[in-house]
Amino acid sequence: MAKFHSLEVASVHHETPEAIVVGFRIPDALRSEFQFIHGQYVTLKLTVNGEELRRSYSICSSPLDIHEIRIAVKRVQDGRASTELVEKLKQGMTLEVMTPMGNFTTALDPTKERHFVAFAAGSGITPILSILKTVLRSEPKSRFTLFYGNTDRDRIIFRKKLDELKTQYTDRLAVHHILSQGKDEDALFNGRITTEKAKQLLGRFVADALHKEFFICGPEQMMVNVSEALESMGVDKKQLHIELFTSPVTSGAKKPPVAVGEGAFKGTAKVKVILDGRETEITVNANGDAVLDVALDAGLDVPFACKGAVCCTCKARVVEGQVEMAMNYALTDEEVADGYVLTCQTHPRSANVTIDYDQH
Known about the structure:
six-stranded antiparallel β-sheet, Rossmann fold, Ubiquitin-like (UB roll), five-stranded parallel β-sheet
């Protein structure tokens, strides 16, 4: 199960006026704990004005570079954690960092020849950069195309690094910037990434016959637009990988996987929680708080971060009983079918339920 560890901040680099890149030094004793897969994230725990905050940030470094884990933090409006980090974090300080997690990835094979295609906007570039660097080094026959949306050139996170990678991998990496306040002669590169614009970009730059893997990370509306474009073009759902970095606000995201029918259980359930090899029974009202909140109120140190069904930090497996998730934007269909749930969204639908966090 994922755990927090105190890590020293090895470096803090201001990538843009609103974004920093933070490097953490990983002690030898924790190196195995912090092994990660391209596209994953870590959760930070910090205290701001006496309140504990937890926030998840994607890893921008490649797992092939083992000495340091780097994340990007972009200040968001009214963001207490991001403002605290961007304004006050210094080299040599320590932060509580949870071990890496996340499903925004795909297995790589040096014998394959594929075309990876990514759509990112703003700080959504962070996990894409990790994926991009790892793909180019691990699959020498494959190529990568990135469509990257920002307001203007000054707000492009990792612009210099992307330029360096384009020079290094001239024949295998293509990067196309789409600026909402852009003034390019080609209108295709100006404005936001709409469904129609995504279709045009794909039609012009991704027309080869190679097998493709698609990655989308950014605001929900961009994710919906690109997903609709790919769906209209007949792209298999298994080729599509999506990562939201904020809690969804529209109806276009992934629907709950379980519907409750007439006569569903509505009483009080005995929920057995398995955590670090220990079993604790809690009482959960079917129409009350989610299992995660009840467990926290009972003093259990269960893992969590966003509480918005976006990350999978609170993931656990249901080994007995029936439950329902109110929302799910993080687990795959296969994981749901295998009994995994986001406990921040989970409510009992039978009198007895057993949830195992150790089977993360």
